[in-house]
Please model this.
Amino acid sequence: MMNLTLEEVLNLVKGELLKPTDKKINITGVASLEDANENDLSIFSDTRFIKQFYNTKAGAVLISENLSEDENLVKKTEIPLIKVKNPQIAFIEILKIIEKEKKQIEEGIHKTAVISKNVEIGRNVNIGAYVVIEENVKIGDNTAILPQCFIGRNTKIGESCLIYPQVVIRENIEIGKNVIIHSGAVIGSDGFGYTKVPETGEHKKIPQVGTVSIGDNVEIGSNVTIDRATTGKTVIGEGTKIDNLVQIGHNVKIGKNCIIVAQVGIAGSSRIGNNVTLAGQAGIADHIEIGDNAIVAAQAGVIGNIKAGEIVSGYPARPHKHQLKIQAILNNLPEILKKKKID
Model:
């Protein structure tokens, strides 16, 4: 269990103690303002939660620089306050300690793992029960492959990756360093490629002989499917984070540091720039180009290219402000029609 003194917390988060205390405080956990007890560290960075802040029983609270400038706010609590530039980032440093203690994955290869010939396994690697690894796979140092995963032939997995149970990584896949893949994900499934034979109406399968390349520091949620390219590569850029239940089609190229929220679907050969946000259930048609820093709102249907920095919503996806005007008119349509008839 985590057990940190107040001084150790200060050092970890590089914070300043605003309300000194003589009381010896040991921080053994983290919690919301509402749920915290005297041994928990909590966080206050938004005045929407000021009621919870005044009523919290936390042992100490991380507070943002701008809120700490409010002298009245600070005076109204006896709880030790730790001023930091960014409470969320500071909180992450504490959560990392808890996460490390919880996981504690041991090094070693389970006796039930099936490992083919010519597999290169780095140092401090964990391979769990009933994992199957085909020939010519390379696994980097400090990587953990948890029970019941499948790794196809000629696949390369970088250092310090964490692959949760029941992940399927098919043949010839490239995975960078510090990648996290959650349970149920399938990397390198066949792209959805068919051509219709006019004479018979048959849908003839197009062989999918390409691969998938996943950059460093990517996280892939549960039950995500990333299709291999027909030829060439499907690419997930460095630092991109993918939520659960996302479908990424063949030959899609996604840039760096993108956020892709649950149930997004991206059709084949689309190009997504850097720092793009695709909100929940957004749908991207095939061969679409989305520029850097664009935002696609939840449930938007993108059927045309989006410029860099643009925010779009609705179906079909339009510039967000324009879409809001359309929605306002639609909401008032019954009244508009009623007035027309009266006139």
Q: What stands out?
A: The domain at 4-103 is CATH 3.40.1390.10 (Udp-n-acetylmuramoylalanyl-d-glutamate--2,6- Diaminopimelate Ligase; Chain: A, domain 1). Residues 87-103 form the longest helix (17 residues). The mean pLDDT is 93.
